[in-house]
Amino acid sequence: MIASIFNKTRPFNYVIIGTLLLIAFVSYSVSHQTYTGWEGILYGSLYFIAIAASCFLVNFIALKNNLSRNNNYAILLFFIFLLFFPTIFKNKNILISNFLLLLSLRRLISLKSMKNTKEKIFDASFWIFLAALFHFWSILFIFLVFASIILHVSRDYRNWIIPGIALFSVIILFFIFNIWSDNELLEAFFAKSFISFDFTYFENTYQNIALAVFTSIGFLFFINMILTLATKPMNMKTSYKKIIFAFILGVIVYLFSADKNNSCLAFSIAPLAILGANFIENQENKILKEGTLYVLSLLGIFFFVAQL
């Protein structure tokens, strides 16, 4: 039933996802008293808008660039994976950083049209460097920009300079706001700009299990895409390669992140949702397709409730 509902793009599907996302966000926020008082509610509303926008941006990227067929599996999987790691709902910096990276990914995927390439490279680089101000290691996604340049517009040397211009722009903005904040931004930035391989952060067993299950699912979807990449249309292969690379970078960001927790996996969820959408839509057996979505949905609900 789940597969049959989301196998087409319907406005009702967005209502379902939006409603469920709101319920999950409010439930977790109330349970953990994340956003209290009128000011907290205001900020909570803004962060919810950011995460809801991220959901619909994933859907837009998948459909607009033909990374999935005319279905809503990508946005569904993105929501389900959020349930695996509900700490994302309270990690404000990661919410904002991930949203900015999705804006960057949107521009990089659209490079295949070969229109306004320089503007797209600048925009993508700008969003990535801006995202790094909220979560330092998201800066690694700049490698996706250079990979995109190699795939599409490597012959024009000016394209290699554009990310540097974007970096300079973000640095100027950063120091302007840093002066206003009496150097607090600079101190906070350097406080988390180091590599940490400390994986002893788990607050409960369910976080550990959720990570293990997510890793297994990620490996399955990743390998499936690698094995089926050769069957993709020639004009789509570069786009899928970017999604694969984005997933790898998302995992590396998690591995490198200081102050590590499961919410750092947010950077890998969007590309994995697109990889998963391809896996599901390619299943010809309807029972297997429905079964996969039911299992993922039940796992998401279980891990979410267990971590409330």
Description:
- Helix content is 73%, strand content 0%.
- With 308 residues, it is an all-alpha fold.
- It has one domain (2-306).
- Helix 4 packs across helix 12 (266-281), helix 5 (92-109) runs antiparallel to helix 6 (117-134) and helix 7 packs antiparallel against helix 11 (237-256).
- It is globular and about 55 Å long.
- 41% of the residues are buried.
Number of E strands: 0
Instruction: Compute the separation of the termini in Å.
Output: 27 Å
Tell me the count of domains.
Answer: 1
Could you tell me the radius of gyration in angstroms?
Answer: 19 Å
**Sheet with the most strands, sense and barrel status:** none
Segments where pLDDT lies below 50 for 5+ residues?
A: none
Q: How do the SSEs run, as a string of H and E? A: HHHHHHHHHHHHH
Identify the overall geometry: globular
Count of DSSP-assigned helices: 13
- The overall pLDDT, averaged over residues, is 91
Helix content percent band: over 70%
The structural class is mainly alpha
Q: How large is the share of residues in beta strands?
A: under 5%
Organism: Flavobacterium profundi
Protein name: EpsG family protein
InterPro entries: DUF6427
Keywords: Membrane, Transmembrane, Transmembrane helix
Which secondary structure elements does this structure contain, and how are they paired or packed?
Layout: H1 2-6, H2 11-32, H3 37-64, H4 73-84, H5 92-109, H6 117-134, H7 142-152, H8 158-180, H9 184-191, H10 205-228, H11 237-256, H12 266-281, H13 286-306
Helix pairs in contact: 2-3, 3-4, 3-5, 4-12, 4-13, 5-6, 6-8, 7-11, 10-12, 11-12
